[in-house]
User: Fold these one by one.
Assistant:
Number 1:
Amino acid sequence: MSSFLEMIENITPEIYESLKLAVEIGKWPDGRKLTQEQKELSLQALIAWEIKNLPEEQRIGYMGPQECHSKSAPVPNLLFSSGSLH
């Protein structure tokens, strides 16, 4: 595991952007396809790098504070809507 951590320490912002693009399009800059293992390891590296270097709202997968849309509209009471039990 220390080699993975060492690798994360050596990622520059330029390497981060290149790695992120490779994961997004599924290809290395030279056009070769990423294998499934390369995608998984690269994504893990990106996430680990982001934790150390980016604020939470700029990280992969950040969704921010959200409210459930169902809270904005009242939910009708279908069970007792006509005055009798259905």
Note: DSSP finds three helices and no strands in the chain.
Number 2:
Amino acid sequence: MLSALRPAALAALLGLTGASPGLADRPRDLGEAVERALVSDGLRGAIVGVAVREVASGRLLYANGAGRPLLPASNQKVATAAAALLALGPDWTWETTLLRQGDVESDGTLAGALLVRGSGDPTISARFGGGRAAATLERWAEAVRAAGVRRVSGEILCDDSAFDAVRVHPSWPEDQLTNWYCAEISALTLNDACVDATVEPAALGAPPVVRLDPETAFVSLRNEATTTRKGNEFGFQRKPGTNEIRLTGRVSAGTGMEPASVTIADPALFFGTVLRECLGRAGVKVEGPARRATAAEAARPGVPLAVHRTPLRVALPVCLQRSQNLYAEHLLKTLGRATRREGSFAAGAAAVVEALTGAGLEDGSLRPADGSGLSRENRASADALARILAHAARSPHGDLFRDCLAAPGEEGTLKKRLLEEPARGRVRAKTGYLNGVSALSGYADSPGGRRLAFSVVVNGFRGASAPAKSLEDAVARACADLAAPR
């Protein structure tokens, strides 16, 4: 075990006291708490990094393998979100604009096209649309009609050029691209680049009822599932490169279902197609299809008909509390576009490191490949994550950043963890998980007001993640609790 400070010195730094009668089994200090958790059989052979830093001074209070770059899983989002917030500020705003290109004739015909110009907003979705994926586009359709347009002679042109054309990171798992956390990344995105499918049982032996949101001809659904007396075992598959979705399996009679999100191919055309359908329902006929705009078409002047604006601060809690990968990737590519004029994975990764220069990172301690942590090419040391957290906390946006992290017992990835006091009231953190990888990084506040930044990253364990999570929780709990009076 490599510790920056031995337990006695650490206790002095944290202001810890000896155990009171009746609490003899309680760890006396952070070092002891970590050491107890590390002896778990489930962590045998695993690689562990632990770092704890005092936020105000940046001082390292505890380290165990803290400098070794490891797979951070979704703790990569800590770096991505902090970099975007520090470089762009919370009020940096995405704009998605609908313009008409051409004049409106006396009969209500737009002699030209409608252009939708995206800048990377990830929030146009059911999450922010009152539970309806196309709510924003429905409002846009009404705005077009209110502008006197009844017919569009041209097409819906989709400009997603703010991001590059690489919509899936090459290191993402190919067999998981149907799952919501592997959604394609585009500067023009609707509903997290997914359709939400609600499955309900029908009569015994009949196919279940499937409702899609948004309802759109952009996807085709083959319902091969069956309603059975008991047992739910069904799933969706999408043929790679297409929007052909297939439902198979068994759906139990008498049960209600939560919507399942299924990714789509080509989010920009998805956006444009659903907009065209919303316009049709609003009484505006579009003669041409939705298609991607050429550079020349996107550069033509137009008259704005509707605009949707979202400040960056709105996206951060979804990224950090709910661990939404698409939001992290949009932050990454937005940062690349804003600072390096290139909305790509590579430019965004370089921009993240550049934006975090003030954190005092050691060379090679943070090596991003994507924004979310889904790629197994990401590397971050526990100390790099603790330094980033401490640096972000000292910034003018420190309280905002902390509040965007998950809180125990509340909505988000810590809803069922660290539920006991005082951790429940003093910890904010980001979880992370991949096969064989688990991590937890965040803040813990002592009763006296001292804020600590901690990071625990575990790689290479086999089987369940429970022992790794126990270690993570032990560190978070110790940071929050060991300074309390005994």
Note: The longest strand covers residues 93-101.
Number 3:
Amino acid sequence: MSQIDKRKSDAAQNLDPAPAMVLVGPQLGENIGTAARAMLNFGLTEMHIVAPRDGWPNPKAVSSSAGADSVIANAVIHATTEEAIEGKTLVLATTARPRDMTKTVITPHEAARQLREHIAQGGKPAILFGRERTGLKNDEVALADVVVSVPLNPGFTSLNLAQAVLLMGYEWYQAADQTPAVDLPLNGTLLAEKQEILGFFEHLEGQLDEAGFLRPIEKRPVMVRNLRNIFHRSTLTEQEIRTLRGMVTSLTKHAYWRAKAEFEGRDFDADGPGKKKP
């Protein structure tokens, strides 16, 4: 087994309990495959398919799953929605259309919270997704305990099957994800300590004083403060401080050798002493 195949196989292993995804009357194998891909992205592996229009198994479902073969291989086929939700203890129905029935409507974010809570209590929930063109029928929505409706542009609420599955999967996964909202990979270096940053400031400002940049003298404090704020807005590492100091040193030497060459009447050459001017 190749490394890629092993990673794909491992992707469906050792996952936490999760809700079942029930695709009711899906039309195209490609849509089932992309829905499976979206499921595995977020650790969802239990797929139930109700009366797929183009039959089953469907080779196009496998080819479009982008490696989520295990989800397709373990999908359970049912003749009716009632059969698909047997053994489930909570059923959510996804729909974008208002229905003439009294049923609690929640957002995907709230649905994820309730699903997590339900599973923690030992429950076995499922989420119903309707047909690509017409969605769930009213009798199918009536089987659900709760309706999930996605807040979308009122003028365009159309989602394809994989989008709907991915959206619910994302909210499900995020409800327990501990990934930091902001991360800064240091790639082997460390964050610069304040004395290193202050040393760079003193180096830079000393060279700018010599170059006559920090003038007039009465404006120097404000100019220095503004310069320091530019770098304070960045999270500098030790390596970056060394690079910045090296840049200042290089520019200083460059200016020195250029001035020396001009004083001695030579052409300036950054790679060597240069030739004497005629």
Note: Strands lie at 20-24, 47-50, 76-78, 90-94, 105-106, 125-129, 146-148.
